[in-house]
Amino acid sequence: MTNDHPIRTTAAVINLFTVLARWLLGAAFLYLGLTKALHPVDFLKLMHQYDLTQNALLLNFIAALLPWFEIFCGLFLLAGVAVRGTALTLAAMLVPFTLLVFHRAQLLHAAQNIPFCAVKFDCGCGTGEEFICRKLLENFLLTALSIWLLVGRGRQFCACYSLFGR
Amino acid sequence: MKEQPVRTKVANRRSTVGRILLEAMLVAVIGGIFALAANRISPRGLALTRNYFPAETNSVVQVAVNLTSLRTASGQNPAPPMPGDMLAAQMKQQGLQLVDGPQSVQLFHDSHLKPGVIFVDARDDLQYRQGHIPGAYQFDPYRPEGYFPTVLPVCQAAERIVVYCNGGNCGDSETAALLLKDVGISNRKIFVYAGGITDWTNNHQQVEIGERNSGNLSIAIP
Description:
The complex is a heterodimer of chains A (166) and B (222). Chain A has 166 residues and is mainly alpha-helical.
């Protein structure tokens, strides 16, 4: 009985942290998505600079849908709907996008002959021009939070935690 | 005896992972449909089938890398290329003619004497209203439909068309010039002012605020 109390306290703290992490991640994606969705042409131009594809249709799809998809995921996380599925989707988007940003930063680093962390550009993330090391740290934190949500803790304040029960 | 609960645990974990994967796929599908609908409804939404970049262009980064390699190969000091250099190199690749600041100022003064010279501003509505080269026509290459009825007849009649945007890394003047070329305007009369409005104001030239021919002139963009 006496040993049970600290365990429950730790569990409550972890649950609270997870709920806050979910809200933080949701709010972040809602904000990042909105800034891009309100200026889709600017986002399209930034995506074009990555030389992802020469296919105009594919480029348009990425630039048109990604911001709204981020808004959708942000809203799901804030409301607590399909939390783990949404978190997995976000992690699956964040990892390749971070690698792309890193690759572009390496190109700029090579072209400009400046220290890597001094490379500054607008990566199309919705936060404007930023130093690359700061951007990579931000993306790492967002990915870590997404992965943390997969653990399955902090189910409080959720409209529908899982679409398939449990 | 102990194997049974372990097996059950492993099976439960597998089923949880499966459920999460399935849920993620469902989220992706529903989110994709939501995003398509939102883009369609949004007045700022992109036209999915349009080619917003009419010519195959290298990115500014790629051009910077090429310029640095060229300088290194030719034994020059591989100093970082300026954004203006990068854009100029890119536009030369497209067969577009460039004009610098003094040439643009000269053309601007010529336009008062010879009505055959026009300026085309390839920036968006907000930037145009904040300040443009006096008398310049706005032509946003990413929303061209609304501008063609005004700009096309003027460009057809003009002898020289100077297209500009913000300058630096801005590639919108190039996109606009290529779009004009695509609709039949001879590229021999299209000139790209790579320095753009930044260079114009740095040279202490007047800008016009608000609508075209508003008469509201200023020496700097407020």
